[in-house]
């Protein structure tokens, strides 16, 4: 009897796609083609239409870059996705490049080494789609390739190859984000942008990032997961503002409102032709957020001033009084959902089988009950025991952990409300309190002490996030412990959960902390194979009151926005100072005062018990 062969149609499809792409590369004289997992708008979450890397590789991870030559296919991804990539690339002819490993060459170096002999006799051409690279990323790649004697060429080959079953660009309707939530109408925002253009000696700005467009024009949509954005481009000139968007996304009434705000509408794809003939002489672009294809169009006609960050990034990061009031309201709604969730987890959840996914679903159901809730602000991370040690863990239906016995749950989640955006992490014990390990309590308390130290910070105007980061790390560092992620990221207002330009991390970011910025405060400890601990609140920078002997500088401190109790069962009180215990008690008293009026009598009693003074 002959051998039986089982053909995986999906993998055969990947091989066929590579064959068609290579034929096209040959036709255009392209030796290597790079396909990153990005989109034209520098989005954190992108629409499936632009999932070109996944389409050509079969790899579904969020971070990866494919490189195709005539006889090689490779995928670069980081350590979070090694196992996933190993499974999804089987039989596809792809080689996995483990970019987190110290001996893994960069893409540019690999291509340079691969074509080292050929480049002696002829120019080696590396193709990329310029829409998928920011101006700065494209320049960096071009320079790296040039160091190896390779030439970069802007060319979109995937558009010609991916012709069947490619998802359309989402056509969900745009809607106006009302001033009662935004706190500032479009006219003064445009005025501020034009003043910034004059300061930069420019007469136009190109905006590609969806968050910036949404903030500037007070529009929102549902085109992107977790972020209420609409897919579009925008060009602001001294005398007009043009929104490039598919007309099917704009209803007649919304069109009237946009026209009343002096916003012109043109088709989405027309932005390229528009920029090729723009009358502006000097055009401002954010080098990290505007794609190279737009830059190349402008350079045919005008001079470009490439900056990072754009003035709009700074403006939108400074939350106004209405936005901050909305954030506080959203936090109360979020706190009600979290209180109900933890009550359910303590009292009911384990009466029936539960997994990491069912916990996330239940939390979503509680959030959905909140006023003005629209969506989660990112995919909930529910990591049970060892899975909590995987920083960017995402539970999958077939492999997620079952919640049973005693253990620790790391729960990182957030909500999008019309009033604002939330992001919170709590590490929580499930099971018999007597089974809590002293090492776990020790680690939890180290994290909590760093979390409190940052929340209590006071600092002069002009301070950068990296100057504060040590406050969160200090207690761990004394014991030779650290964490690899940032301590604090900016957070948008009913917008992206991760926002610039400032942050709090060890990296040197020259953007200072400004009054009205909202950040996360989230140190952590991760014990591989055991558990993960992270504690996160959102805070906002505000002016601080200083003593009479002050030398006169303006000082800031942080106001905590998040409302949710800590798991005091995990605290080793012998490690805490009197001031730290007082801070916890004051915080819990505030949480109880703010949230109790919104709860049932049973829920109030539960919260009261969780907020008991230490």
Counted by DSSP, the helix tally is 20
Shape: globular
Round the Cα radius of gyration to an integer and report it. 26 Å
Question: Overall pLDDT, averaged?
Answer: 95
How many domains?
A: 3
Portion of residues within helices: 25-40%
Main pleated sheet: 6 strands, mixed
Total strand segments? 28
Beta-strand share of residues: 15-25%
Structural class: alpha+beta
Explain what this protein looks like in three dimensions.
With 614 residues, the chain is an alpha+beta fold. It folds into 3 domains: 9-161, Creatinase/prolidase N-terminal domain (Creatine Amidinohydrolase, Chain A, domain 1); 175-316, Creatine Amidinohydrolase, Chain A, domain 1 (3-Layer(aba) Sandwich); 318-610, Alpha-Beta Complex (Creatine Amidinohydrolase), CATH 3.90.230.10. Strand 3, helix 3 (82-88) and strand 4 (94-98) form a beta-alpha-beta unit. The chain is globular, with a radius of gyration of 26 Å. The model is unreliable at 1-10 (pLDDT under 50).
Features:
alpha+beta; 6-stranded mixed beta sheet; Creatine Amidinohydrolase, Chain A, domain 1; single chain
Task: Give a topology summary.
Blueprint: H1 9-28, E1 32-36, H2 52-57, E2 65-68, E3 73-77, H3 82-88, E4 94-98, H4 107-114, H5 118-121, E5 124-128, H6 135-147, E6 150-154, H7 158-161, E7 175-176, H8 179-182, H9 186-199, E8 204-207, H10 210-217, E9 219-220, E10 233-237, E11 241-244, H11 252-260, E12 263-266, H12 271-276, E13 282-286, H13 292-299, E14 303-307, H14 311-317, H15 321-347, H16 356-368, E15 373-376, E16 381-384, E17 407-413, E18 415-417, E19 420-421, E20 424-430, H17 438-455, E21 458-460, H18 465-477, E22 488-490, E23 499-504, E24 518-521, E25 524-527, E26 531-534, E27 537-543, E28 555-560, H19 578-595, H20 601-610
Parallel strand pairs: 1-5, 3-4, 5-6, 8-13, 11-12, 13-14
Antiparallel strand pairs: 1-2, 2-3, 7-9, 8-10, 10-11, 15-18, 16-17, 17-20, 18-19, 21-28, 22-23, 24-27, 25-26, 27-28
Helix pairs in contact: 15-16, 17-18
